[in-house]
Design goal:
The complex is a heterodimer of chains A (615) and B (233). By secondary structure, chain A is an all-alpha fold. Chain A contains 25 helices and four strands. In chain A, the strands form two sheets. Chain A has a two-stranded antiparallel ribbon with strand order 1-2. A two-stranded antiparallel sheet of chain A has the order 3-4. Chain B has a single domain, classed as Rossmann fold (3-Layer(aba) Sandwich), CATH 3.40.50.300. In chain B, the strands form two sheets. Chain B has a six-stranded mixed sheet, sandwiched between helices. Chain B has a four-stranded antiparallel sheet with strand order 2-1-4-5. In chain B, α7 links the parallel β7 and β8. Bound molecules: adenosine-5'-triphosphate and magnesium ion. Magnesium ion binds next to α1 of chain B.
């Protein structure tokens, strides 16, 4: 009994920390509608800056608390700078572009942090005056945890006061509902946005700084906290402060008791709860349906037409080269080309969901990974030959696509993106934590092709044939009646229903089909590498796929292909040439979003049309 | 006070306004009349900077405001009352007014919540009520009051009579006459000729995004064929 109470208390302490970060994320979203991936980076920066300040300042109360507050303020200023330099320019861009741009910031901050503080974990000092522990029900409980339990409600109270008792807060709440109208009443929205970013980032920095006495400071803090903060914010309802507090409580306690009951599946549990909440309440516990996004102007999506003549010739030439040249290449080049082929199919499959389907997926790597694990597990546990493994890959991915998709395609916008992310994280957690079956972090090794396909050249041709075949099939699907139905429901679900299209079923099937295609790519990737790892399903790989599609442009069929080639090629070169590849990749992402919001293929097409008159 | 000349505006590729010209003098009430979809709301949005004008000039109080941002235009003393009302539903009446509050304008008596409650008595009885729990008529009064809190010299009033009961329309007309008496200029958009003639000095008729007729209310009432052609349904 006493144990349970203590467990509940430590759950409260985690909930408090989680709430600090999530509250910042949710107020930023409420006003700017930007889902800020970099929020986790601000949290990490808060911890690092606090480490430096606290260890440099004189010891004692002033040094410690001054360091914590100073770090939070500094992070607030960094957030302000990011808003002014980057986000302010892309408020009108599509949601996924904004998400991507903030992910670029994540990469940049990671690299810079490593440059400044190094790769090793740092251990900060403990809080003066709160070093010891106290006795609760005869058991010892750390004082600092008790202090943290108090911080959450105090911050919540202060924020509620700020939002309900000041003019600034009133303006922010008004802008959360209708920012254009607030502007028409004479309020400078830019100031409002910048200040809300300052506040939100400050909260993230404070959350990070307060972790200093609790855990080591490391380079993985950003992505681990951001996924949890996303869960909290989405479960609570995007933009709702009290919702975030409730959700933080729920998730914090679930962690605490999950460890007691089923330590193996704590990660899965968290995302399962998020999925459940979203299925029952599509806008989170206290969220409101997204107002018909006022203030942003969406432009009508252009139709997908056949590729212009020259592009067709270019494609045929590239294909010719891909067939003729490889016999003259070495093994390394052949592996790279094989990887390129799978990347093309991976991107094309995501494109089906995003382009013609008009849905957002932030967890497409799940299906790539499920394909890879399907093939690898069959090889490992059943001794299945390669062709069986390759057949199982799309099957596994497709079946899970059907199951996950059943829930995901009911939602739209950010909530849909977050649910796909949640399912991907569930898949990832299972691969990561179910060590007996999946080997956990060590992955499954020795997934090699059968003897006949063992030569790199043969395997390359196999991969090329399968990926090309599947990509062309996806293209055909887009122009088949199914593809028209898919686009019809994207453009207007209501009108599509009126002409007898079952929008839900079409979206669902489209989602599953894309998942199966990603599974083929994953299976081939596994045999090409000879191994599978949980990272195949990680967030970074989902972002890779998004980058390929967005790089290429969502509204052209050639987009994902060009995007996959450009992205994989770029990454390959960067990793080889420089240690700073994350910095450069991040900067490239940011630059692309800023300068080519239509993607590369879109930009090329626009130039082409400008030069040759409107097609 | 407000002069619009050669104003043109697009929604995407659709050309909505073409060479719109109108002007409103100091202390004057001018009504922009036209059928559904004629371009009344778009004209107001283009003046306010909410729809970027593609060509033309908008001069307000001696300054060119075409192409400026809405908040800058509002700060110059141009108030906008949207047709859809766009009350902040999560905010109380008092908070809605607070969002609109701006410093006083020289030469005009500054608006306070109390003065506005005298103008719209029903609002005074529900100061703490969330905007989402008000009737359409109450919301219409609140949206006007909210804009007045900015102490504008001129307000763009987009179809204030829409969806209101006849009694409420009468009261709305009284309120508008009271505003005019304060020295406020008003550009009103209307389909309801009866309501328009109660409050306006002059009328301008718009049809398919072009100005078709301008003149005094008396002239309009005399010109049967004009009303027949552009306003009858
Ligand atoms: N957001 C928009 N996108 C595209 N077209 C629009 C949009 N808003 C209005 N339109 C079109 O512009 C034209 C003018 O519309 P506007 O709203 O200015 O008319 P109105 O005179 O105010 O009509 P009403 O009396 O119904 O309010 C109409 O043909 C309308 O269909
Ligand atoms: Mg209108």
């Amino acid at each position: 009994m006493e144990n349970l109470v203590l467990q509940a208390l430590s759950g409260l302490a985690s909930a408090s920390s989680l709430f600090l970060v999530a509250s910042g994320l949710t107020v930023i979203f409420g006003v700017s509608r930007v889902v800020n991936f970099a929020h986790g980076s601000f949290y990490m920066l808060g911890a690092y800056l606090a480490y430096t300040l606290v260890t440099q300042l004189p010891r004692g109360h002033l040094g410690f608390w001054g360091g914590v507050v100073g770090a939070a303020l500094l992070v607030g200023l960094i957030g302000l700078a990011v808003e002014v330099l980057l986000l302010r320019r892309i408020y009108r861009a599509p949601e996924l572009f904004q998400l991507l741009a903030t992910f670029g910031v994540v990469l940049i901050v990671q690299e810079l942090t490593q440059m400044v503080w190094g790769a090793q974990d740092l251990l900060g000092p403990r809080a003066p005056g709160l070093r010891g522990s106290t006795e609760i029900l005869g058991l010892r409980f750390p004082l600092y945890e008790l202090f943290l339990i108090g911080v959450g409600p105090v911050v919540l109270g202060l924020l509620l006061l700020l939002f309900h008792r000041t003019r600034w807060g009133t303006l922010v709440r008004a802008a959360t509902q209708d920012r254009e109208m607030v502007g028409a009443l004479g309020v400078n929205q830019r100031m409002l946005f910048t200040s809300i970013f300052f506040l939100g980032s400050l909260l993230a920095g404070l959350g990070g700084a307060l972790q200093l006495p609790r855990e080591s400071v490391n380079l993985h803090m950003d992505l681990s906290i951001i996924t949890e903060a996303f869960v909290v914010v989405v479960v609570g309802g995007l933009g709702s402060l009290t919702g975030a507090a409730l959700a933080a409580l729920l998730i914090g306690e679930m962690h605490a008791f999950g460890i007691l009951i089923a330590p193996k599946i704590t990660l899965v549990l968290v995302f399962l709860v998020m999925a459940l909440v979203l299925v029952v309440r599509p806008h989170g516990l206290l969220g409101k349906p997204e107002a018909a996004a006022r203030g942003g102007q969406g432009s009508a999506e252009p139709m997908i037409g056949p590729a212009p003549g020259p592009l067709r010739w270019l494609a045929l030439t590239a294909l010719g080269l891909a067939v003729v040249v490889p016999p003259f290449l070495g093994d390394y080049a052949l592996s790279v080309l094989t990887e390129l082929a799978t990347a093309v199919l991976f991107a094309a499959s995501l494109h089906l969901i995003m382009g013609p389907g008009g849905m957002a997926s932030f967890g497409h790597a799940a299906y790539f990974g499920l394909g890879a694990y399907g093939a690898a597990l069959a090889a490992q546990w059943l001794g299945a030959p390669m062709l069986v493994g390759l057949a199982l890959a799309p099957l596994a991915a497709g079946v899970f696509g059907l199951v996950f998709g059943y829930f995901c395609v009911r939602l739209s916008g950010v909530y849909a993106a977050m649910l796909t992310l949640a399912f991907a994280q569930i898949a990832w957690s299972v691969a990561f934590q179910w060590v007996e079956v999946t080997g956990g972090d060590n992955g499954i090794l020795g997934v090699w092709p059968d003897a006949w396909a063992a030569p790199k050249l043969v395997f390359y041709y196999l991969a090329l044939a399968l990926c090309l075949g599947a990509t062309l099939l996806l293209r055909r699907v887009v122009h088949a009646p199914f593809g028209y139905a898919l686009r019809a429901q994207r453009d207007s679900a209501l009108r599509a229903e009126a002409i007898g299209i079952n929008a839900f079923r079409i979206r669902w099937l489209g989602f599953a089909l894309a998942a199966a295609a990603a599974g083929i790519a994953g299976g081939l990737f596994a045999y090409g590498k000879g191994s599978v790892f949980p990272t195949f399903m990680g967030i970074p790989r989902s972002v890779d796929a998004l980058l390929m599609v967005l790089l290429g442009g969502v509204q052209t069929l050639s987009g994902p292909i060009i995007g996959a080639l450009a992205f994989t090629g770029l990454q390959e070169q960067l990793v080889r040439l420089t240690d700073l590849w994350r910095l450069i990749l991040g900067a490239v992402i940011v630059a692309l979003v800023l300068f080519f919001p239509q993607g590369l293929a879109g930009a090329a097409r626009a130039r082409w049309e400008a030069r040759h008159g409107d097609a | 006070m407000l002069q619009v000349a050669g104003l043109s505006a697009y929604y995407g590729r659709a050309h909505i306004l073409d060479d719109v010209a109108l002007d409103v003098g100091g202390g004057e009430v001018v009504v922009l009349l036209g059928r559904n979809g004629a371009g009344k709301s778009t004209t107001m949005k283009a003046i306010m900077g909410l729809v970027p004008p593609s060509a033309g000039n908008v001069r307000f109080a001696g300054a060119e405001i075409g192409g400026r941002e809405p908040f800058e235009i509002a700060r110059l003393g141009l108030g906008y009352v949207p047709e859809e009302r766009r009350i902040f539903t999560g905010l109380s009446v008092m908070e809605n007014l607070e969002v609109g509050r701006r410093p006083a304008t020289a030469g005009l008596r500054p608006w306070t919540p109390e003065r506005l409650f005298a103008l719209f008595p029903s609002l005074g009885a529900m100061r703490d009520r969330p905007g989402g729990r008000m009737s359409g008529g109450e919301q219409q009064m609140l949206t006007i009051a909210r804009t007045l809190m900015g102490n504008p010299r001129l307000i763009l009033l987009d179809e204030p009579s829409e969806g209101l009961a006849p009694v409420v329309i009468e009261r709305m007309a009284e309120a508008i006459r009271a505003l005019k008496a304060e020295g406020l200029s008003i550009l009103l958009s209307e389909q309801n000729l009866h309501f328009a003639q109660l409050v306006s000095d002059r009328a301008t008729i718009i049809e398919k995004g072009r100005i078709r007729w301008s003149g005094s209310i008396a002239e309009l009432l005399a010109a049967d064929e004009v009303r027949e052609q552009y306003l009858s349904v």
